[in-house]
Write a structure and sequence with these properties.
alpha/beta, Rossmann fold, 4-stranded parallel β-sheet, globular
Length: 470
């Protein structure tokens, strides 16, 4: 068999179909539409089934904790009567230490059910450890493909730590340098082993997070007799936000504002060898968040089930310095030491809570475990060794890749809004480029994808002289 890069890429759709058991083409219609809801419905898991599977595999039912001291600190810099109550859903207490265990639990259950002998995932994040942990429970072989090093063989301590965790759970870890080799190697391994593609972006991965959205509403009701007013979600590839929002909608009719939050890494290229080790966050940042929200199908399956633009109400960024600061605040004020990436949404919540009255409730929907390599002090020491300037000042002056600025006072923690209208417009333009007409199904698809209206879409189509078929 020809295993050149070009030949393997030419076979990728066939490899994908065999490795997840989903014929993605049957959901595609007309010029650009595809039936997203049917794809998720066909995977066949109800919320109750998901909860049962997860409860039997060390996943879910994590505690919702009120951060009273952080809330009090927030109120000191809010105007009188403002400063919403802040809660965290402590997802670090899942087996493997993050919410990714929810995604992995359903993927590995499905792999076992379909008779696959093993699972493969391409990830440098917490998902690798989650898949390895769940595979161990189901007696499945496991291979994790990681992008670990730059061309000099130097890697972020956080990623190296995650490799150790995967190996501890019995997985084989294939460590690669930054570049396009990752996807090629991933496809080749799927083809050679016949294992299940435990991608973050299959319907199984997204279904697994729906329980998180449902639980945080149910927990909040039980503890406070009220539902949350706002849920803040760290956003990267969009699956965390998508699954959480879908789960919330299954247990309440109340409009709860869904806010995505990413670390601002503007200016750093994710596939750049020289930029690779200048990022002090390996996930939850704009390098994933922006491209994936505008083009979700750039993932490692033909059609991604992670489609954040359908559900997001507001999208904000925070800086690396703000997240590291709030990570220490969580430890010092609440006695809860957690990894910094999961605290991206907590940093945003600290800022957003100042906009809401004291009787409102904000839920930060995840934490993640921390350990030697994942600890923020290890990441800061690595940043300093790579020439990053670290100081206290105004986080607005932070330049990704050159500086990390801790807020000199807590009032300097300010989440910055991104323009969702512009993002939605760019999404639409990406999809209609090179077309001179679309169908009624395409029109409905774009409305659903961008959570806009027929009138809004028709106006853009008219401006671009694109006909809508009768």
């Amino acid at each position: 068999m020809n295993n050149s890069y070009e030949a393997v890429m030419a076979r990728k759709n066939d490899i994908m179909r065999k490795s997840v058991g989903i014929d993605y083409e049957k959901y595609e219609h007309d010029y650009i539409a595809f039936d997203y809801e049917k794809m998720l419905d066909d995977c066949g898991f109800s919320l109750e089934e998901i909860k049962k599977i997860q409860s039997e595999s060390g996943v879910g039912n994590t505690p919702l904790k009120e951060c009273k001291n952080i809330t009090n600190l927030c109120r000191k810099v809010s105007k009188p009567g403002y400063g919403a109550r802040i809660f965290i859903k402590d997802e670090a207490l899942n087996d493997s230490g993050s919410f990714k265990a929810r995604r992995a639990s359903i993927s590995c259950y499905q792999a076992k059910k379909m008779g696959y002998k093993g699972v493969i995932a391409a990830t440098s994040g917490n998902y690798g450890a989650a898949v390895a942990s769940q595979a161990a429970k189901y007696g499945l072989k496991c291979i994790i493909v990681q992008e670990c090093y730059d061309s000099k063989g130097i890697g972020q301590p956080e990623i190296i730590e995650k490799a150790r965790a995967c190996e501890a759970y019995g997985a084989e870890v294939v460590q690669l340098s930054v570049g396009p080799e990752l996807f090629y190697k991933f496809l080749l391994l799927l083809e050679e082993t016949g294992y299940f593609n435990a991608s973050l972006y299959t319907p199984y991965g997204i279904k697994g997070i729906e329980s998180l959205g449902a639980e945080l509403v149910e927990d909040c009701l039980r503890i406070t007799n009220k539902e949350p007013d706002m849920v803040v979600v760290t956003n990267a590839g969009g699956g965390n936000l998508t699954g959480t929002a879908r789960g919330i909608k299954q247990v309440t009719d109340k409009k709860i504002n869904i806010v995505g939050s990413s670390v601002n890494l503007y200016g750093l290229h994710m596939a750049s060898d020289t930029d690779f080790n200048k990022k002090s966050f390996t996930t939850g940042h704009t390098g994933f968040g922006i491209p994936f929200i505008m083009n979700p199908d750039r993932s490692d399956v033909p059609r991604s089930a992670a489609r954040a633009l359908r559900y997001i109400d507001r999208y904000v960024t925070v800086t690396q310095g703000e997240v590291f600061f709030i990570t220490e605040a969580l430890s010092v004020l609440e006695g809860i030491e957690r990894g910094p990436a999961g605290n991206t949404s907590l940093a945003a919540a600290f800022s957003l809570a100042q906009e809401l009255p004291e009787d409102k409730i904000i839920v930060v929907q995840e934490t993640e475990y921390t350990s030697a390599g994942k600890h923020h002090q290890a990441q800061l020491a690595f940043a300093r060794d790579n020439g990053i300037c670290i100081y206290f000042g105004d986080p607005k002056n932070e330049i990704p890749g050159k500086s990390i600025v801790f807020p000199k006072e807590v009032s300097y923690i300010k989440a910055q809004d991104l323009d969702l209208t512009e993002i939605k417009y760019k999404y639409i333009m990406n999809h209609i480029k090179n077309l001179n007409k679309i169908s009624q199904k395409d029109l409905k698809f774009l409305v659903d994808e961008t959570n806009t209206s027929m009138d809004y879409l028709k106006k853009i189509l008219d401006q671009n002289k694109i006909e809508v078929e009768a």
